[in-house]
From TrEMBL:
Keywords: Glycosyltransferase, Transferase
InterPro entries: PRTase-like, PRTase_dom
Organism: Diaphorina citri
Protein name according to UniProt: Uracil phosphoribosyltransferase homolog
Any one Gene Ontology molecular-function term assigned to this protein's record: glycosyltransferase activity
Domain Phosphoribosyltransferase residues, every copy: 14-66
Keyword Glycosyltransferase among UniProt keywords: yes
C-alpha cells in the first residue's frame, strides 16, 4: 500500500535504473519526492549521480560509494553463490 502523506523507504542495490522506475511509481501515487528515502548498502558513483540528478529532493543513505558494486554480497547473503 502506498500512502502519499508519509515517508516511503526504498531499499535497493545495483544500478540506478530500478530506483528511477520505483520512484516514478511512488510519484505517480502522489508521494512527494522529499518524502522518499533510498537505503542501500553499496552504490556506484554513476548510479548515485543518476538517481540524485533525476530526483534532487530524494534522500539517499548508503554505507559506501565505490567504483565497483560488490555483486557477490547478494549471492552470499541469499545463499545463491
Amino acid at each position: 500500500m502506498i500512502v502519499s502523506n508519509i515517508y516511503e523507504i526504498l531499499i535497493s542495490s545495483g544500478t540506478g535504473n530500478t530506483i528511477i522506475k520505483a520512484v516514478n511509481v511512488l510519484k505517480e501515487h502522489n508521494v512527494q519526492e522529499e518524502n522518499i528515502i533510498l537505503s542501500n548498502l553499496f552504490s556506484t558513483p554513476m548510479a548515485t549521480k543518476c538517481v540524485l540528478t533525476t530526483f534532487p529532493q530524494l534522500k539517499m543513505l548508503t554505507s559506501e560509494i565505490h567504483q565497483i558494486a560488490p555483486n557477490h554480497f547478494g549471492q552470499k547473503y541469499f545463499g545463491t553463490d
